[in-house]
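Worked example (supplementary).
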Amino acid sequence: MNTVITRILSVVLLTILVASGAHAADEIRFATQAIPHYAPLFVAKNNKWIDEELAKIGAKPALKWTSFLAGPPINESFAAGQQDIGFLGDTPAIIGKSAGINTRIIALTSSGPKSLAVVVPANSSIKSPKDLKGKKVAVTKGSYAHHLLVLVLKQGGLTSKDVEVINLPNADIATAIQSGNIDAGAVWEPQITKLEASGAARVLADGTGIKKGALVIIATNEFVTKHRDQLKAFLKAYQRGAEFIRSNPKEAAKLIEKDVSLSADLLLKVFKKFDYDPAIQADDIAELKKSEEFMKENAIIKSHVNIDTFVDQSLTREAGIK
Amino acid sequence: MPPEKLSMANDTNSRLQKFQHLLQYFGLTVVLIGIWQGLYHLGFLNPILLPAPSQIALAFWDLFKSGDLMRHIGISVLRVLEGFGIAAVLGLVLGTAIGLSRTLDRWTDLIIQVVKPIPPIAWIPLAILWFGIGEQSKVYIIFLGAFFPIIINTIDGIRQTDHKFVEVARILAVPRFKFVRQVVLPGALPAIMTGLRVGLMVAWMCVVAAELIAAGSGIGYLIMDARQLSQSDVVIVGMITIGIIGKLMDSLIKRLEIRLIRWKVAFSGN
Amino acid sequence: MSATAASNLTIENLNKCYKVAGGDVDALQGINLDIHEGEFVSIVGSSGCGKSTLLRIISGLENGYSGEVKIGGKRIGGPGLDRGMVFQEHRLIPWLTVEQNVAFGLNGMDNSQRDTVVREHLELVELAGFAKALPHQLSGGMSQRVAIARALVNNPQLLLLDEPFGALDAMTRIQMQQEILRIWEAERTTMVLVTHDIDEAIFLGDRVVIMSSRPGTVKKIVPVHLPRPRDRSSYEFVQIRKEIFSEFFAYVERPFAYAI
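After joint prediction of all chains, the assembly is encoded as:
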């Protein structure tokens, strides 16, 4: 009987431990995605600017990098207490917060209305959003492209119920478009450029005028409290990366080719679609609020997220970023 | 003690016993759920990692009220029945043929034994290439899950035909067709029913794997979708639903089995 | 004369050995036996003397022997409708009714013919009222009677019975012995019965073939010239029993010992 009770107790204990999430001292765990939206990050990383800025404040934590395919898996990882800083779209960030993940937005990574789009096969008969009615449309559920899809459908007077929505990862949507298995897909770079370059697809509608396509950097509240200075140092490094892309795009493209799996010349084209300024502006906050309202209305999130408290501009300000 | 008093005492005794049994049956589950809910209220639980029972119940009620849950269940059940149906027909026919013919068995044994251990999930890439991302690829995965238990149990059932009956049939010069029809097949029925039961269960368990292939509906889809949106409570609702429906399906087939093999219940194996 | 010879069972110099792990085991050695048409022959022996093997060879279920087994001068091949068999277990098919079980052996006749034959044989074993019953609803003795009906349905010339009443209790056994006698007197099929029950062998047989064991040989053949029905306590019966007993057991004050 004693051994049984001991076992039950240890299982309960384990669950609690897992639930709280353990954090090793002196390391920063990054959750990233290998896409050009986070180009400044890769520039800073490859030039060792993150280490530099941290050294300036006398910190030498180990930098751990994990790459994910989209925002929702990053949410999972944060929920399990495995990450400190994450890079994801505004939509999954808000979804995660709504589900109870203890994070805040500390900066933008980039914005680019043209960096996400609803695409159709090149020879498709679909000419405008209303033609999507009854068609098979693929999207990564819970991503910011999902939000775009809903907005594009709204332009055509449709809702999600008017189309057949299929859940696929970003890269698989591109494959499905090429193989003709679906009629349309909501994707983000680098898939848009890749598809256009190969002539397999064209853009039906992108975020221009309807979604700024802002992506954010989130950090756990615990990390903000414990390592505020490290975060500021990191943001400075990120800023340097963004400036480098502005001033030396060709070099930057060459430098991060491998990190985003896009050739340097295509990457140059893609750079033009992005504004890599990490400062959070007033209209960015307004956009986030619109996104949040939309998600609540469409039952994508169950409980309200207070954007004013979710966004923390203090860190960028203190880091001297506009 | 006067007889009436005695019998009343017996009644209360057995009622007490029944109550005790009921308590034991449900007791552990209720206590665990209670502890679970308590941990949540005390703040020990991260609701994403492990939602409280109350949240799960709420999510269940929402899904049920909107009709979504029943819709997803219906679609998944339909897929399972399709895949299982095909597996049953093919499995029974091929299994019978192989069971009755040693030659056929030698031809097919290697392929069956090698393909059998491959889990249906591993087939997903090929399934998508062959059948696309529509219903067919999902039904194919489910079919694979159900097929092997059915064919293998059918073959076994036929092989296990009691040798004693074979001797009787030889002595009485019973024609082969009649022997198969009257002795082999009914004798194989218990094993065949086992195969069908296991096949249905595996088919149902495969439905989550099958609905990984770009599904827009179904219980497996519900779970995956909720995962994308970090809705662990819905995930658990999906899991529990799968468990309950699976149990219901199993009970149904058990009933069918008892009906078909009524003689077995009385036959002690002489 | 030729009609009688046509269904005589002749066994000449029958030998059978089994290959076992240690080497060869002689199951049967030098069996010579002549069984005449219409006879009732009992074969008695202890376990392992090969009497069941002998029966199975006659039935055609087993091969791999040397020597000759002939019916009416013709060698037997595999199993055939001329030789019926009743086993120790009734071997009725559990999901078929009694009449379906009896009809199991009837092939190649139209339905009404078949039904008639089935009914006749059920009446023969006095189970006509149980035609629609399932085997599990019958007692051990009743099941065995159905098995006998089934074995006789094709009018075999020879009925082989391999310890048919061994699984039954003592009282049912005696009833069944009387039953089989009645059937034999009605049908006059040649019957070869294998048993380890000496009383049963004497009660039923015209002759009792005593087999020794390891290897199985015909030790002695004892004729039983008593008229039927036989009184198991009559002086002559007891004498024959004493004679056969002494082939198996040496009478010692205590304990009994096998003499074979």
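Two points are worth noting when inspecting this output. Chain C has one domain: 2-82+156-258. Residues 69 and 227 of chain C are 30 Å apart (CA to CA).
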